[in-house]
Amino acid sequence: MTESFFIPAYQRGYRWTVQQVTDLLNDVATFTERHKPIPGEFYCLQPVVVTRRNDYWELIDGQQRLTTIFLILSYLNSRLVAEERKELFKLTYETRENSASYLLSLDEKSHQDNIDFFHIWNSYQVIRDWFRLRSNRLNYIEAAVLNEIKVIWYQVDEAVEPIDVFTRLNVGKIPLTNAELVKALFLRSGNFDSDGSRAKLLQQLRIAQDWDEIERRLQEEAFWYFLSNRQQEVNRIDLVLDLRAEEIPQVVSRWDVNRLFLTFNTHLASKQNAVTNEWDMIKRVFLQLDEWFRDRFLYHVVGFLLCQEVKVGQVCDLARSAKSKTAFRAALKAEVFKLAFGKLRGSVDEADLSEFIHGHVAQLDYDSHPVSIRRLLTLFNIASLLELGDSGPWFPFDHFKKEQWDLEHIRSVKSDMPQRVDAQKAWLGQALEYFSEPELAAVSRGSHAYEQKFAERLRAVREMEPFDVPAFETVFNDVIDRYDPGSDVEVDNSIGNLTLLDAGTNRSYGNAIFPHKRRKLIALDKSGRFVPPCTKNAFLKYYSSKIDEMLTWSRQDAKEHEQALVSSLVRFFTYDGEHV
């Protein structure tokens, strides 16, 4: 190969480590020692991405690999007399002109002149030392380097801006990842040579079809967000591969960017005809995840743990250590208890459970414990859904994670009076929208005429020019006193006055009064949007004993909402089996 490659300024210098160079050489050596060589089989490096520029190739990606190959070929040439040395490809640099000449000289005296020379020289020493230890295999390895190493050649259209391609590659937009490399390990033809060509084809086809089916299932948002808390457009099968890799004794650093590929590469190379059995192990991991997703109890309890940053691998460990499905379900509940309350389930007597949970919940405050409150409210919703049995809806973890559900005050905090004029006018508009509702007369306390007078006052204040801030403060306090009576900091920030709502809806509420929030939430539910059952129940006053005051949220309502949460969690942790 005598092609010329140009390294543009946006590329960094050569930085391969001793480990990376050694891994490449070891892989090539292993390739030469394969049990049953197949004519035409070759060792494939990761892609080289180029675009044509006159009589040379602009190297967009692959500089590190090509430079290492150049150093390997340089060492092999150094063993020959000048007449027998092979002509190598050329590497030139836009901003590192001396690097090209240093690659040709490999002068030890200059290797500390700059950081690029230093890494080039170190890699060359690794190559030289590595070959010296394998003098008896050198000819075989040299033949493989010269004739059986190939790259995936990815040529970008000349009209495309190279730096844009480079940027996409380096932020992972081109789906050439560990997953593709692992797939190549499983599907290479040398894995299937024991049962004849037809059997080989069928085995390859089965793995390829299984791979595509697993990726397709993981592309379903409900399934993916049940398992994961982050977005990932492609190669979601990485999650399954990683779980299986965790079961394999590790010889690769956890922090190596290619850990997944290197783990499977080492594992498969260490066992004869291991591919079919190993693929069955990967499928076993996937089918376990799929079973959790399809089982109503496991879906909700495992899903709760995973959305609270518990790792999937930790749940897999619980499943492996449990002696039965019943034991696994009990272990999951114990893990939920520890996460929710910071104590082991066995440390709380059954008779004291209600008192313990009530005491824990009562001391939580919005300002000091938002994470704990959000976690308990999520569990409250999940426990409530499980009580509905098989006919009830399932908690939508995909919406929960993508829509960033927030803590929402059921009754507005009085001290959160809007301070800017535009926010004050917006608040007046929300209140007027509520007072204009035709159904108001049917549920309002007192006469409808009283509500109409409120509306007239609000409209008059909103239309004042210039805007009268003191008049707004007066009418704001009058509305709050009527529809949020008894407002104080303690009740406002307790868990009884908090619920879950998606961030978009929460922001749209602002400091709206309780009846306005209630009306908006009912409209949201009617439109088909999922509203957490406990959120809906709170605003419909399902947990309240005093149902003739539908347009206010009192201290008593908050206490009864909190007690409903405590009772639901007590039932969840008291009863064994699938249902609470």
Describe this structure in words.
Among the domains are: 4-174, no CATH class; 370-574, no CATH class. The chain is 57% helix and 7% strand. It has helices spanning 18-32, 63-78, 97-105, 115-132, 138-147, 162-170, 178-187, 197-218, 221-227, 238-246, 259-269, 275-294, 296-307, 312-321, 325-341, 353-362, 370-387, 397-402, 421-435, 440-443, 448-462, 469-483, 489-492, 503-509, 514-526, 533-539, 555-574, and strands at residues 4-7, 43-53, 56-61, 90-93, 149-155, 405-409, 498-502. The strands form two sheets. The protein has a five-stranded mixed sheet, sandwiched between helices. Strands 6-7 form a two-stranded antiparallel ribbon. It is elongated, with a radius of gyration of 33 Å.
Relative helix content: 55-70%
Strand pairing plus helix content: what structural class? alpha/beta
Q: What is the distance, rounded to the nearest whole angstrom, between the alpha carbons of the first and last residues?
A: 70 Å
- Sheet having the most strands: 5 strands, mixed
For this structure, the quaternary state is single chain
Radius of gyration: 33 Å
**Could you say which overall geometry the principal axes of the C-alpha atoms support?**
elongated
What's the total count of β strands? 7
- Average residue pLDDT: 84
Strand arrangement in the largest pleated sheet: 4-1-3-2-5
Low-confidence spans: 172-176
What fraction of the residues are assigned to beta strands by DSSP? 5-15%
Tell me the number of helical segments per DSSP (H or I, 4 or more residues long).
27
